[in-house]
Amino acid sequence: MATTLLRRGAATALAALAIALVMLAGQALAADALPDLDQEVPAQLDVRVGGTAAQPSYRLGFGSGVRNVGAGPLLIEGRRVAGSGGRMVARQLVEQDGGGAPRALDGVGSLRYVRSVDHQHWHLLGFDRYELRAVGGGRVVRDRKSGFCLGDRYRVTTRAVAGAPAAPVHTGRCGLRMPGLTRVTEGISVGYGDFYAAHLEYQDLPIDGLADGRYLLVHRVNAGRELRESDYGNDAASVLLELAHGRDGVPVVKVLASCPDSARCAAPGAGGPAAAAVPLVRAARRGPASLLCSLSAVAGGWRP
Ligand SMILES: [Ca+2]
Ligand SMILES: [Zn+2]
């Protein structure tokens, strides 16, 4: 009797072990193919003059780019109940190495139906942040961007990324002129990036009233780490700027250094690259064709 019980116990233990092994094997087969978002260095800087002749106003414009150099695509799905207003809840879909259904991660943010002068569609909020920080001090200006329509807008050409699709996949328009949608998907494929041009939908920061001195312009993707990635060490990039005002009160901005993968950026020592002047430009009349968010692809790839 006791022997039978022992045998039964051993058999049960063996069965449990077998089940555990099968589950482990299943997990090994279905590993997350995570994206790795890589913030590009702020690029194409300029200072745009607006306001009136009597009271001019100045904004520091910048292009920003985020590329995916990970093992899997960034996939975002927004959903809402019909008639529930202009907001969707976002979740991230993580592709699995072994194939099969992607793993869904809830609570990665929200999308809002944005009506701007030029276009209206669903924007993912808070994907990328821009700020100016005083060197040795804190944040002095922060963006007020209305969100992002992610897509494969340029191909990564400055480094090799394995597994990039031959052609862009995410070329959608985030539900352009479709406020009644209940589901929207957007993303960035492996080996592609999403780019936003200077002054487009708040791709700039006001610099009126700032004291002369050194500032860091910091761009940071996934600041709240809501999106699951394989590496968070490359999510910020920065440039070190010097701001001075002439006697006429016109700001003169120079780039002292560019720092990929870091929110800190030290000035180069003697013999380093010379400071580059940021051009001063007059506010151009807004052309309708140039203002469709990031919906038009950037020809020729990323241009720092
Ligand atoms: Ca990253
Ligand atoms: Zn837009």
Structure, explained:
- This protein has 304 residues and is mainly β.
- The chain has a domain at 33-69 and 127-168 and 188-291.
- 9% of the residues lie in helices and 38% in strands.
- The chain has 1 helix and 18 strands.
- It has one helix spanning 2-29, and strands at residues 37-39, 43-51, 56-68, 74-79, 87-94, 103-115, 120-124, 128-134, 139-142, 154-155, 183-188, 192-196, 204-206, 213-221, 236-245, 251-259, 276-277, 280-282.
- The strands form 3 sheets. Strands 1, 2, 3, 10, 12, 13 and 18 form a 7-stranded mixed β-sheet that branches.
- Strand 6 (103-115) and strand 7 form a beta hairpin.
- Mean pLDDT is 87; it is low at 287-291 and 296-302.
- The structure holds calcium ion (CA) and zinc ion.
- Zinc ion (ZN) binds at residues 119, 121, 123, 149, 293.
- Residues 119, 121, 123, 149, 293 line the site of zinc ion.
Major beta sheet summary:
7 strands, mixed
Provide the gyration radius in Å: 24 Å
What structural category arises from helix and sheet content? Answer: mainly beta
- Which runs of at least 5 residues are low in confidence (pLDDT < 50)? 287-291, 296-302
Bound small molecules, deduplicated: calcium ion, zinc ion
End-to-end CA span: 79 Å
Mean pLDDT: 87
- Percent range for β-strand residues: 35-45%
Overall outline: globular
Beta-strand segment tally: 18
The H/E string reads HEEEEEEEEEEEEEEEEEE
